[in-house]
Design brief:
heterodimer; A: alpha/beta; Rossmann fold; 2 domains; 23% strand; B: MetI-like fold; 80% helix; elongated
Chain lengths: 371, 242
């Protein structure tokens, strides 16, 4: 979707803000640009919509070189959300949200309909806020409007520069949670700039950690935490990475997406053989639609003929977006070392084992031990 | 509210003085100017000020917009420097120098008033546009507004209150400066004031000066209302006016 190919930005005074950065962001992914201040993360974001022209390299969107697209046209198709100060103070909330649709020449009623819809999406009552001015809103509300405005003309790509930056920690966490929910609905490709490692791990599908204009590691949050590439990454993620991982890494990163399964009407002997072959102690049981029914455990195999006779139905489940600490706590309280990961309608999406969590955490410990 | 009471009181005193002096028959051995003289001088004065202001505004505002464009920013320093230097010149000098350059007459007076009135408008317009939060401009660029759209939809509306304040300050100053127009062959209330100066009659001086001051106060008041009316509502709320 977005591909940066050896992008370099050197300012006229010789400062190398971005140095040969190459990275690719897939469609629907949220890529966090992370790093200490002055690392070039904001510049990297701003070269994508050509707010900042690059010195060397190429940027492709859907395979098209961005320099071949008219600059204003390019920007109208890329949502842009910056900190709350970016709202136009002389325009109402509704007018702010309609800026890009108006630039694109949408008819008036379609525009205002869209603005109402977006306000509701970001959790604001459209009747109440549509005609208010930014100065009448709280910091958190302004951030929401900023996100709504970026989504104005339904662009496939969003650029967000610390969108939850200048805001109190409690509101911030709430906005992050809400945005994660919105993100699942809207399915955009998002570039998200932050200096906050917690925010990065929480929000990102992938994290690009930068330092002094260079891309240091481009990886999933769990790999960044548990498989740091070098000392800088280790220091940046901090010594409490195991704890951060538990608090922030989402279950989907460590779960097994295609686990061996069992059906309720299968014979126990068949299932037992499958467990031995796969080297596991239990199998998730699903019905014909893939919905999770329960577990069949190796210790119970002698107690019945078919899976239905020995199935253990009273087990907890979690969603793929739950964080590891929630999953771990469910495991500990259920006394079961494997957790079924289901979607909203109880369809099995994968399984997460205690071992997988432990393995991820202990990789860090081993690495540290060997140093 | 309090300020308005003070202004209206001063205005009443000034108009009262003018009416009283004009109703006198003679001051010493001098005849006072008649009502029709006074009114035609006041009209000429006002006309001169308005023409000068319209010209000054139509030069200063575009110039300020020009020197705040990204490519032309380096012009800003010399232009603003020039404006600041110009402002420090005595108004009498600016007016006096016009006579040898353009000859005696109304045109010299108007050109001089323009030059002098231009500076506050230019300075305010420049500051108004230049002080807009860069993040706001960048948000506009990031959303795909063209340079022209940013100027029309963001910069001008946001700078308008400051530009209008510049026009108001300039107008008020120019009403006073226009007293000097008579020295280079212009018209206006200066004719009465300077007659009084030459005759060494304070009351006669006041017959010209009091209505001039009243005019400055009234114009200032009207322009202030226009300024408030033109300030976008979103900004009024911010400043806590409304």
């Amino acid at each position: 979707m977005i591909r940066l190919d050896q992008v370099t930005k050197i300012y006229p005074d010789g400062t190398e803000a971005v140095n040969e950065v190459s990275l690719e962001v897939g469609e629907g992914e949220l890529c966090v640009l992370l790093g200490p201040s002055g690392c070039g993360k904001t510049t990297t974001m701003k070269v994508i919509n050509r707010i900042i022209p690059i010195t060397k390299g190429k940027i492709y969107i859907d395979g098209t070189d961005t320099t071949k697209i008219d600059e204003d046209e390019l920007r109208r198709n890329i949502g842009y959300a910056i900190q709350e100060i970016g709202l136009f103070p002389h325009m109402t909330v509704g007018q702010n949200i309609q800026v890009v649709p108006a630039l694109k020449g949408w008819p008036k009623d379609k525009r205002s309909e869209r603005a109402e819809e977006l306000l509701e999406l970001v959790g604001m009552n459209s009747a109440e806020f549509m005609n208010k001015y930014p100065s009448e809103l709280s910091g958190g509300q302004r951030q929401r409007v900023g996100v709504a405005r970026a989504l104005g003309a339904d662009p496939p790509i969003l650029l967000m520069d610390e969108p939850f930056g200048a805001i109190d920690p409690i509101t911030r966490v709430r906005l992050q949670d809400e945005f994660l929910k919105i993100e699942q609905e809207i399915k955009k490709t998002i570039i998200f700039v932050t200096h906050d490692i917690y925010e990065a791990i929480k929000m990102g599908d992938k994290i690009a950690l930068m330092n002094e204009g260079r891309l240091v590691q481009y990886d999933t949050p769990s790999n960044l935490l548990f498989k740091p590439k070098n000392e800088f990454v280790e220091q940046f993620v901090g010594a409490d990475r195991a704890l951060k991982g538990l608090q922030l890494i989402r279950v989907k990163e460590l779960m097994t997406g295609t686990p061996p399964l069992a059906k309720a009407d299968e014979r126990v002997v068949t299932v037992q053989a499958r467990m031995e072959r796969e080297g596991v102690d239990c199998l998730a049981v699903v019905d014909n639609e893939g919905k999770f029914l329960g577990w069949v455990d190796r210790v119970n195999v002698g107690k019945g003929e078919t899976v239905r006779d020995i199935i253990n139905r009273s087990v907890a489940t979690a969603t793929a977006n739950a964080v590891l600490s929630e999953a771990l706590s469910l495991m500990l309280s259920s006394g079961f070392k494997t957790l079924a990961i289901v979607d909203g309608i109880n369809k099995l999406e994968g399984v997460l084992s205690f071992d997988a969590i432990q393995l991820a955490l202990s990789e860090v410990a081993q690495r540290r031990g060997s140093e | 509210m309090r300020r308005q009471v003070v202004l209206i009181t001063i205005l009443a005193i000034l108009i009262g003085l003018t009416v009283w002096i004009t109703s006198l028959d003679k001051i010493g051995i001098y005849d006072v100017f008649s009502w029709s003289d006074l009114l035609s001088d006041a009209r000429a004065h006002l006309k001169m000020v308005l023409i000068a202001e319209v010209i000054a505004t139509s030069i200063a505002v575009p110039l300020a917009i020009l020197v705040t464009r990204p490519g032309l920013k380096r012009l800003a320093t010399p232009v603003i420097f020039g404006a600041n230097v110009g402002q420090t010149l005595p108004s009498l000098a600016v007016i006096a120098i016009m006579a040898p350059l353009l000859g005696f007459g109304l045109q010299s007076a108007i050109v001089a008033l323009c030059i002098y009135g231009l500076l506050p408008i230019l300075r305010n317009s420049y500051a108004g546009i230049n002080n807009i939060e860069p993040a706001i401009i960048e948000a506009g660029r990031g959303m795909g507004m063209t340079i022209g759209q940013i100027a029309r939809k963001i910069e001008l509306p946001l700078a308008l209150p400051v530009i209008m304040a510049g026009i108001r300050i300039s107008t008020v100053i120019t009403v006073g400066t226009a007293e000097l127009a008579v020295l280079v062959g212009g018209k206006g209330l200066g004719r009465i004031t300077f007659t009084g100066v030459l005759a060494r009659q304070p009351l006669l001086i006041l017959q010209g000066a009091a209505p001039t001051a009243a005019m400055a106060i009234i114009l200032g008041f009207i322009l202030e209302r226009i300024e408030k009316w033109m300030t976008p509502r979103g900004l009024q709320l911010k400043a806590g006016i409304s």
